[in-house]
Amino acid sequence: MSDKMRLIVMGQQAFGKDALAKLLEKGRDEVVAVYCEPDREGKPIDPIKEFALEKGLPVHQPANFNDQSTLNTLSSIKADLMIMAFVNVFVPEAARNTPTHGSICFHPSLLPLHRGPSAVNWPIIMGSNKSGFCWFYPSDGLDEGDSLLQWECPIDEDDTVINLYFKKIYQPAVDSVLQVCNLFRAGNPPRIIPDEAKATYERRCIKKHARIDWNKPVGQVYNLIRGTNPAPGAWTTLNGEEVQIFDSMRVPGDGVSSKIIDINGEGITVQCIGGRILIKRVRPSGSGKITASEWAATVSLSVGDLLGSENNTNL
Known about the structure:
Order of helices and strands: EHEHEHEHEHEEHHEEEEEEEEH
Helix content: 25-40%
Strand content: 15-25%
CATH topology of the largest domain: Rossmann fold
């Protein structure tokens, strides 16, 4: 292979933009085209598109990769490799295999674990102690295919989605795009065959998955809160009104689950099975984020009230 490769970068949002910027900054290879999702009416321009246009790169936004004209355009670019950095659209085999050496795709989990669109949320929710990222050879299956490389990091007991993704995974993942290119450049890039017996698939983590059941073990409740922080946001109810819960802490103590044990300047302490949750920051319905103690004063919350029940009464 030539020392200088012709690259297509396909991606969205900040990760796609930063991976593209890393390649341009290094300057060893030539980015010959950038692909991203079509513009959405009323939505801001995608950061990768804006950045690519600033750099004078050709940008393509096909609505359908099965379209023959799209495939013809891909073929005319004569790329060596397509780097798929945070891709939300399905790219069929005919499109993926157009570059000389095919395509390589990023995924923020240790494949074959946590295939699916919420791969950062679910390891935390499930109580895993490690995560990471992969670059893999995509197939027509959901996040299926051999891996080129894997990188792992610990999930600490107080990590939220923000901590895990933005403070641990993000920058090493952006930097690794250069390693990806070098592995292809060297010839015979590695193929790590997944153990399908260990594969897991999870759907997108949405609001219905983030409802708190205070009658669960405290570890499960705490993992749900931090595994949905900041999105989609864990939530509970008080007198039928929803409130989202964000920053929290696990604390010891026994008692009647779902009961509010204490309210002070630090926040609201709620009993679960085998321990308690100190809620520090919330978002009431129709409001922005506020401290839990502010919310408690606003709704006249009292020790002994129950969360998550339509009939909040003192016991």
